Amino acid sequence: MTTIKQEDFIASVADALQYISYYHPADFIHALAEAHRQEQSPAAKDAIAQILTNSRMCAEGKRPLCQDTGIVVAFVKVGMDVRFEANLTLEQMVNEGVRRAYLLPDNKLRASIVNDPAGKRPNTKDNTPAVVHVSLVPGDKVEVSIGAKGGGSENKAKLAMLNPNDSIVDWILEVVPTMGAGWCPPGMLGIGIGGTAEKAMLLAKESLMAPIDMHELKARGAQNRLEELRLEIFEKVNKLGIGAQGLGGLATVLDVKILDYPTHAASLPVAVIPNCAATRHVHFELDGSGAAVLEAPSLSDWPDISWSPSAESLRVNLDTLTKADIQSWQPGQTLLLSGKLLTGRDAAHKRLATMLQKGEKLPIDFSNRFIYYVGPVDAVRDEAVGPAGPTTATRMDDYTEMMLGELGLLGMVGKAERGEETIAGIARHQSVYLTAVGGAAYLVSKAIKKAEVIAFADLGMEAIYEFTVQDMPVTVAVDRHGKSIHTTGPEEWKRRIAEGKTIEIHAAN
After folding, report:
1. pLDDT, tens digit (0-9, with 9 covering 90-100), for 4-59
2. pTM of the predicted model over 0.90
3. Which of 286, 276, 273, 232 is nearest to 252 (CA)?
4. In angstroms, rounded to a whole number, what is the distance separating the alpha carbons of residues 366 and 135?
5. Pair 75, 145: CB distance under 8 Å
6. In this predicted model, what pLDDT tens digit does every residue of 442-475 receive, in sequence order?
7. All domains of the chain, ordered by start, with CATH?
């Protein structure tokens, strides 16, 4: 019988979470590099280049790939010939590993987990508790598959109880466009089929722990029905033209994973959960010989791609910018922002709205300012701020009229599309909405030279900061007329793909 010591288990979990915070899986890097090589949409190709450059920077600097360092999900398979030398439960051991990993001083990760989800939602401060799934299996080892799932992609999870004769592929093709770009494509789709409602969701999540192998599957061909489905969904989803960051392009998904389970004769539960461009997961085993050792990847796994701003990018001084200056900006235009940039996201917007309702004086004048939707990672060493990529702007749609109309905000920076009412409001106020690349958080943070909390410090990462930025790369997503690149880009590339107006690029030698 194998004995697993408590400290070995905890240390392994902590090390694994630090590891996946800054190392992409090699299979993801290779697949994304190939997507970059094949991509023909300039906007999407630029976004992928930023993600790849960010990935290598994180591997070298051991800093998080994304500011949203995720909710921890662990699948733990315990061999029935294993005993634990421990005074904590298995879930408590996982949570202690999470606590150590997220509070590690040299690479502190963002604490995103809140208690009392239907109430006051206070932050737990250490990213616990994790979501832990435990199963007993034959054997004398403990196998752990652990991931950190970002909120932007997790929020796009979908479940349907289809009729047995319904088309799974048709449902997926209906659902994926409704996900928008908040899940930060290109990434993976995890699909669970069968069982019951909760089993289908669990299968979808567990499928995302598998390595990307679509290239190998395409080369050898499908050998069973699930592989046929994987190939069909992969091809048809990419033909939607959604592309990287929803800007329009050839690569929306890098792989499609499917797990299934027997189900009731009257049922066909199907779940889909996307994994974003900050794909984070790793597998390790414990055999009683000590803590798991995870080998660092070789930097040769990363392609020779180093993103730099386009020479055609417009340099913008936020400190002198006026409404007249933004009227000529066009969707898809790249900008480099310098000057003072406010931040704020869900909790800060809600508090501002509450203060206005009560007639209280706001701590900040938002007139003629830009706000960046972000919850940054804490700084370490000589950083002004930690990784600080954009959060999904759609969640702030309910507050946009307040910000633009009542408070005089000039424009917004985030990721993903905006809703129809919000776009109409942007046009009505002759404002603009800009996007930064989700999945390039460390790269973006290098443009932030100073970060100061100026309001709502008690909200932690959701406090309002004032960033001093220099050449922060963004793209015009919605112009002052209400024209959105998240609509025009995918429409154009869906049409090009359907009409065969793309260039065939042969495999590299």
Report:
1. 999 999 999 999 999 999 999 999 999 999 999 999 999 999 999 999 999 999 99
2. yes
3. 276
4. 52
5. yes
6. 999 999 999 999 999 999 999 999 999 999 999 9
7. 151-275 (no CATH), 314-491 (3.20.130.10)
Closest Cα to residue 31, out of 222, 186, 235? 186
User: What 3-state DSSP class applies to 136?
Assistant: strand
Measure the CA–CA gap between 94 and 69, rounded to whole angstroms: 16
Q: Which of 496, 490, 504, 509 is CA-nearest to residue 44?
A: 490
List the structure tokens of 337.
């922002």
- pLDDT band at 508; cut points 50, 70, 90: very low
pLDDT of residue 505: 65
396: nearest Cα among 376, 378, 421: 421
Strands 314-317 and 448-455: what pairing?
Answer: unpaired
Q: By C-alpha distance, which of 100, 107, 18 is closest to 383?
A: 107
The dihedral region occupied by 250, where left means phi > 0, alpha psi between -120 and 50, and beta the remainder, is: alpha
> In terms of Cα–Cα distance, which of 207, 178, 176, 203 is closest to 270?
203
- Is the peptide bond between 262 and the residue preceding it cis, with omega within 30 degrees of 0? no
- pLDDT per position as a tens digit, 143-196: 999 999 999 999 999 999 999 999 999 999 999 999 999 999 999 999 999 999
Which residues 6+ apart lie within 8 Å of 84 measured at CB?
3, 4, 5, 6, 9, 90
Residue-level pLDDT at 506: 55
Residues 174 and 162: their CA atoms lie apart, in Å, by: 13
Contact 469, 341 (CB under 8 A): yes
